[in-house]
């Protein structure tokens, strides 16, 4: 079996975004029960120099879009502004998931050694192969913002656990090996 650029990007992004959507739903319900409003969540951050939750959610979506675009996918959603409420964050995730679902493996190509270059707003420029781009830049950027959003929710008090972060792993659970009730 040959592992493609699609295999190591699109399913991982979809799993992470679905988990984030579930975390946001749990946070909204917990907030309603505990007097934590949407605006308090949206503006919460881990440290003064870090982005707030709404930006972390948007950046998670943007990272899931940016990598496939740099690898050849087209028609990406814009995601230009932070959401102002939970419905908006969920809409960004849903729009990103719908776009990811429309990507075919061929859209990302099969040449893992082809050149991928990109420039950052601060003037730094990077040149790498497609596979090194995914491994060393795209995946870490996606997971950084995904974990930051999770951590902000935990910081506010939402009772999230590892199952909320990697719940998709249950599809691989060997029968008879789950925790007993």
From TrEMBL:
<dbReference type="InterPro" id="IPR018531">
    <property type="entry name" value="DUF1993"/>
</dbReference>
<dbReference type="Pfam" id="PF09351">
    <property type="entry name" value="DUF1993"/>
</dbReference>
<dbReference type="InterPro" id="IPR034660">
    <property type="entry name" value="DinB/YfiT-like"/>
</dbReference>
<protein>
    <submittedName>
        <fullName>DUF1993 domain-containing protein</fullName>
    </submittedName>
</protein>
